[in-house]
Amino acid sequence: MSLREGDSWLYLKFKQTLVESDHNAVFSNGSVLPVFMRTVNGATQLIVEIEYKFFDPRQVPGFIRLEKHPDAQPPVVEAPPVESTKLKGSTWAELKRSAEEQERRARVERYAGQKEQQQGIAAPDSAFAAASRQHAQEIASSRGQSGPNSKVR
After folding, report:
1. Residues 13-45: pLDDT tens digits?
2. Tens of pLDDT along 68-93?
3. Rounded-to-integer distance, Cα 91 and Cα 23, Å
4. Axis crossing angle, helix 5-16 with helix 126-142, rounded to the nearest 10
5. Which of 27, 29, 51, 118 has the largest count of CB atoms under 10 Å?
6. Residues 57/67, Cβ–Cβ less than 8 Å
7. Residue 55 burial (10 A CB sphere; 0-12, 13-18, 19+)
8. Is 54 helix (H, G, I), strand (E, B) or coil?
9. DSSP assignment letter at 67
C-alpha cells in the first residue's frame, strides 16, 4: 500500500509524536517490528507501524511477545602501533621512497576515516522518501514528463 500525498503530512506529524522504545514486537509469522511509545493523558500507549498505519501491538493478530533489544556493546578498537615519522634511509633515493611511503599511508588513513564518517550518515525516513518520490512522479506526470526517457521513474 502506498501513502497518498494528502495523508503524508498527517502521517509524518503523528510519527513525530512517537518515541522509539527499546523493545520489538514479535509476531507468529516471523516478523519483528520496532515498538514506539507515546503518552496520552498520562497513559503510555505502545504502537507498531504496519503499512503506514499505527496499531497497538497487543491487538494485532499473531502477536506473540514484546522483546527487549539486546544491549549493544561498543566494539573494542585497538590502538594501532605508533610508527616513527622519521624518514628511513641514508641515500637521497631511500629518503625519497620513505617520504612517499609515509605520504601514501597518511592518504590511506585519511580516506578510511572519511569513509567511516560517511557510513554513519543516516538515511531519511523511508516513508517520507516514498511520499516525496510519489509526489515527484505525480508532478512529472501532470506536466507530461513521465516517460521512459524522463529522470523520474
Report:
1. 888 889 888 888 999 998 899 899 988 888 888
2. 877 767 777 777 776 667 777 788 88
3. 64
4. 160
5. 27
6. no
7. middle
8. strand
9. E
Give the model's pLDDT for residue 121: 59
Across the chain, mean pLDDT equals 80
- State the Cα–Cα distance between residues 127 and 14, nearest whole angstrom: 13
94-116 residue pLDDT tens: 888 888 998 999 999 888 888 88
Does 77 reside within a domain?
no
- By the 10 Å C-beta count (0-12 exposed, 13-18 middle, 19+ buried), 91 is classed as exposed
| Number of domains the chain is built from | 2
**Angle, alpha carbons 128-16-73 (nearest 5°):** 90
Residues 6 or more apart in contact with residue 89 via CB below 8 angstroms: 95, 97, 98
Residue 12 lies in a domain: yes
In terms of domains, do 52 and 9 share one? Answer: yes
Same domain, 88 and 49: no
Residue 76 lies in a domain: no
Q: What is the pLDDT of residue 48?
A: 92
pLDDT at 147 over 60: no
- pLDDT over 70, % of the chain: 84
